[in-house]
Amino acid sequence: MDNKQREISPAADHLHDVLEGMDLTQTKAAEMLGVKPSTLSNILNGRKNMSLEFCCRLEYVFGLRASFWASLDTDFRLAQCQDEFTSRDLSDLQPMVS
After folding, report:
1. What pLDDT is recorded for position 2?
2. Mean pLDDT across 12-34
3. Residues contacting residue 12 through CB under 8 Å, at least 6 positions apart
4. What domains lie within the chain, and their CATH numbers?
5. What NCBIfam families does the record point to (predicted)?
6. What are the CA-CA distances from residue 54 to residues 9, 31, 84 (Å)?
7. pLDDT on residue 3
8. Which residues contact 3 (CB under 8 A, 6 or more apart)?
9. d(CA 66, CA 57)
10. Model pTM?
C-alpha cells in the first residue's frame, strides 16, 4: 500500500466520530489516553494499526469495550491481508482442503 491511498479502518473511523461527537481535539484525546498526539494521529490516518493495549485504553477512557475496537480493527486488517494474499502466486502452497 505504499503508493496507494491508505484505507482507514472502521475502528479508526469510529474513533474519529467519537472524538468529534465529544468535541475533543486529537491533542486532548491523546492526553486522556496517555499516548503521544502523533500516535493517535497515525492511527486515525491509517498509518498505524490499533494495538490491543490501545484498545484497552479506549475502553478505559471512552467506555466502549476493548473487544469492540479490536474486532473492528482486526477484521479490517484480515480482509486486507486476504485480498493481498490471494492476489499472489500460490502455486508453492499445498492445501489440505479444497
Report:
1. 45
2. 97
3. 43, 44, 45, 46, 50, 73
4. 10-73 (1.10.260.40)
5. antidote_HigA
6. 14, 13, 26
7. 42
8. none
9. 8
10. 0.83
